[in-house]
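Why do we care about 3D structure at all? Because function follows from shape, and shape follows, mostly, from sequence. That is the central idea of this module. The next example makes it concrete: a single protein chain, its amino acid sequence, and then its structure expressed as tokens.
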Amino acid sequence: MGTRDPRIDAYIKKAAPFAQPVLIRLRTLIHKGCPGVEETLKWGHPSFSYKGILCGFASFKEHCTFGFWKGSLIVGNNKGKTQEAMGQFGRLTSLRDLPAEKVILAYVKEAARLNDEGIMPPRKTTAPAERRLTVPPILINALKKHPKARSNFEGFNYSKKKDYVEWITEAKTEETRRRRLATAIEWIAEGKGRNWKYER
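And the structure:
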């Protein structure tokens, strides 16, 4: 058997007049679709749980919002609406903005089923940004003349390569640049990093 939280009664009572029928309808349908649902307040707004968070709604000055915790698995990608407001249904300003009763009930039942079965939305993974390093022509040409140094440089990780590139390109004079380049080729041929003296 589900539970009702008197704080949600107070929340609805304090809501703007346009919002109250919307919130009452949503609350009724959530309980009808999932009789075991438990009410609470999370993040200052009504939240409904059943073996984990199920859904929630909120009321603001000029609109209400409603959304499912696993909305992408229940409602799908409703981009137009999700950009309007929190949740999956956009800005709700009257009962007319709500989906049909049978649709909401189906969504609530699906949310409960997902929680029953422990199904979670797939995690979003982002590939790490590719790091690009521009090797100056002076170093490229010198490496071409020294196959061992070239082979070692190609095997270096990004940071090791970057240390050499910056050391050579940041030289203030042409003489310093040539001297550093000669030293770099020698060290690279030996498989040493730019700061090999300080490495353990």
